[in-house]
Structures are given as structure tokens and as C-alpha cells.
Amino acid sequence: MQPLHTSAIHQPFVVLVHGFLAHRIFLALLQWRLHKQGFRTLNWGYESVLQSIESHAERFAERLKILDADPTIESIHLVAHSMGGIVARSALDRFRPKKLQRFVMLAPPNHGSFIAAILSPLIGSLLKPVAELSTSPGSRIHSIGMPESIEVGVIAAGWDQLVSIESTRLPIPHQHVIVPCMHSSLLFRRDVVALICEFLTRGTFVENRSESHDTRLSPSSTSTP
To answer: How much of the chain, in percent, has pLDDT values that exceed 90?
Structure first.
């Protein structure tokens, strides 16, 4: 993984989005590692607990408009964890930046979370995202648009206890890789940073390979966090 050596305007601009019950501090290490690899970054934060996904998406879409109009930014990539990926998907329904190129989703509940389905009857009326991320047929998650016409890579956590691997997949062409770790551990692993950088740079998780694929990383083939 070699750092990019380009002038500021040519440096890819990466927007990071955290998930539910989280804070942008959770992405600080990932942000720093991406910066060390030559990416310009913005760690976008939001109050994830009480407000709806749509309210977060509206704010994020407004930020994307500002970035898209910034003459010092040549290209935009998104890296989002868990519900952050759903917020980003919903924002792209509202506004699709012309400069947007690639989108990496980390453990995204693209078809809902089975934990949210369990908790929704108990706390869904208070914590709106819980109800919206439920796997139930009427959940909001099922009506959010797909990130078509851009390159999308999904990194799933093989030992995820919140989101099933099947729920991370998209019904559109995309690349998919599974890393043997827990849901939030993806944010702190060096091998995940390498995968993100590879995809943002080349549009693939595997060097010299461009077609869509599904790869499982075994513990013996990955670096330690």
C-alpha cells in the first residue's frame, strides 16, 4: 500500500460517515490512516440516535452539494460504516455529486438488521433508526434507492453479530469481500484500510482485477489489526 503523491487538488477527497450509536471519533483512526495514504478526508458527524435516517440524509446531501461545488476538490469518494452507509444511500437519492466516483460500505445493513427487528417493537418508537433498519417488510430500509452508476465495494464482517453477511449485499453490480472480524472491528484493522485504499484507487479489492467478485479473506491471509 503506497501513499499517493499528488497535489492537493488532485488528491481524492474521502468523506467518512459513522453508524448508529456512534460518533465520528470512532472513525478518527481510519481517517488518519487514509490521510497518511494521501487522501484528503472529511469525517462527517451526526446525531444518530433519535432522528430519522431521512433527516440525516437531508443534511448529508447538503454537505455533498457544498463539496461538489468546491473547485479545490476534483473527485469524491464515500466510506461509510453500518447505518452510515444507509444514510449515504438515502442522501444520494436526494443529490448525486457529479464528482462522486466510488463508495465503500463497511458492514452495511442494506436489507436491515435482525437485531433491529428484535428491538424495534420495544424501542423503535423512541429510537427511529431502529424501526427503520428492521428487516420487517414495511421497514424504511427497503424503500431507499440503490447507489447505481457508481463503483461500489462492500466489506462485510465475517463475525458480525448485528448485520448478516447476506444483508450487506446489494442487488446491483458491486464488489464484496468478507473480513474475519466483528462489526465495529472493521474500523480499526490495517488490512481493511488496505482494502479501502485499493478500491478507492483502482475500483477493485484485488490488484489487477476489474470484474465484480466475492472474496473471503481467511485469518491466515490477513494482517492483524
So the answer is: 85
Domain assignment of residue 174, yes or no:
yes
Does residue 224 form part of some domain? no
> Among all chains, which residue has been given the C-alpha cell 489489526?
225
Cα separation, 176 vs 194, whole angstroms: 15
All cell numbers assigned to 218: 481467511
DSSP annotation of 12: P
Separation in Å, CA 187 to CA 10, 40, 87, 125, 181? 26, 18, 18, 29, 10
For the beta carbon of residue 210, count every other beta carbon within 10 angstroms. Answer: 11
What is the residue range of 47's domain? Answer: 8-219
Axis crossing angle, helix 53-69 with helix 83-94, rounded to the nearest 10: 60
Residue 2 covered by a domain: no
Is 53 strand, coil or helix?
helix
d(CA 47, CA 24): 10
Which tens digits make up the pLDDT trace of 25-58? Answer: 999 999 999 999 999 999 999 999 989 999 999 9
